[in-house]
Design goal:
With 318 residues, this protein is mainly beta. The chain has helices at 3-21, 86-89; strands spanning 33-34, 42-45, 51-55, 57-58, 61-65, 70-76, 94-103, 106-113, 121-128, 137-145, 157-160, 166-170, 177-182, 195-198, 207-215, 218-225, 237-243, 264-267, 274-283, 288-295, 301-311, 314-317. The protein is built from 2 helices and 22 strands. A 5-stranded mixed β-sheet has the order 1-6-5-3-2, with no helix packed on it. A 5-stranded antiparallel β-sheet has the order 4-7-8-9-10. The protein is globular and about 50 Å long.
């Protein structure tokens, strides 16, 4: 073998090894079937082993699954309407970006009331013993924003830290992602502090949909960059940063703070997957699971599901 052949063989071997080490991103969603339309999904695994998804829709919509693959529509959280929200929605029934979880033997649902392009918004919460349509009791408003506050009270996510303290992340555009402390006894605000977690000062503030998870010694702040809600033309992409503290600072793989626009990309548009974003994460028996929406070529929002592994403390989807 000549020296040139040896050199080429060596370069190919190095390239193959490098490609093996690079985390796979922009993979396709795992298989799903049934009622697959969804927008701004969140999923909780029930004590019995089935799954409940809540998502944006009239009076907050629900789906159920027994296997995390086949999904069935399950009605509205508030089948008789939610008139307490209409001052924020300009009369519309469409309620946004719910967050469902299970604590203290009951289901908690935080959800948003707003109108497109406005920061006159509010986050409410409800509880249920079963999670089923019509079983929810609204517990009132948690926080609201106004046209002049400079932040937006939508896209809530409840996270309980390693010390058992309750927090709610929230925010969309304007000055970015915020966090408030919650009283575990009431589910409502514990104090008047508003903590800033992430912003995109050089990108028109285009981030939203925070979701915080914990794995090992790190908290992970997941967000969506860029633009949602434009069908197949949507530019949403899923980003993440991490911190050893719930309240930050969160940084990306390159060490850039998320308050300065940092974020490590997990998934973006590719092939027939357009604008993946507004993700949630839940823990199952086999791994942590990423759930999100994307738009198909026809512009319809679909549920996307992938498993998560952690390489050197960073999430990788597969």
């Amino acid at each position: 073998m000549c020296l040139r052949q040896i050199a080429i063989s060596g370069m190919l071997a190095v390239a193959a090894a490098a490609s093996f080490l690079v985390p796979r991103q922009n993979i396709n969603p795992g298989p799903v079937s049934g009622d697959t339309f969804i927008h701004d999904p969140t999923v909780v695994k029930t004590p019995g082993g089935s799954y409940i998804a809540a998502y944006t829709g009239d009076n907050v919509q629900l789906k159920t699954s027994t296997d995390r693959t086949r999904w069935q529509n399950a009605g509205a959280v508030f089948p008789n309407g939610a008139p307490w929200t209409t001052p924020y929605t300009k009369g519309a029934r469409n309620l946004w970006a719910p967050d469902i979880s299970y604590h203290n033997g009951q289901y908690y649902l935080y959800y948003s009331a707003s109108s497109f392009g406005s920061s006159r918004s509010a986050i409410f919460f409800a509880t249920s013993p079963t999670g089923a349509s019509g079983s929810w009791t609204d517990r009132g408003m948690v926080i609201e924003s106004f046209e002049n506050t400079g932040w937006n009270a939508i896209d809530p996510n409840l996270i309980v830290d390693a010390q058992g303290r309750w927090w709610l992340s929230l925010g969309s555009f304007w000055s970015g992602i915020k966090m408030i402390a919650l009283n575990p006894g009431t589910g409502k605000r514990a104090d008047n502090q508003l903590i800033s977690l992430a912003a995109r000062p050089d990108a028109g503030g285009a981030l939203e949909a925070p979701y915080i998870t914990r794995n090992g010694n790190y908290y992970y702040l997941w967000v969506s960059f860029d633009r949602c809600c434009q069908g197949a033309a949507s530019t949403y992409r899923i980003m993440v940063g991490r911190s050893t503290s719930m309240t930050g600072p969160y940084v990306d793989k390159n060490g850039r703070q998320m308050m300065q626009g940092g974020g490590t990309q997990i998934m973006s548009s590719h092939g027939a997957i357009h604008g993946p974003g507004h993700n949630a994460v839940f823990t199952d028996t086999d791994s942590d699971v990423l759930v999100y929406h994307y738009y198909n070529n026809a512009g319809a929002a679909q549920i996307g599901i992938n498993r998560i592994r952690y390489d050197n403390g960073w999430p990788v989807i597969f």
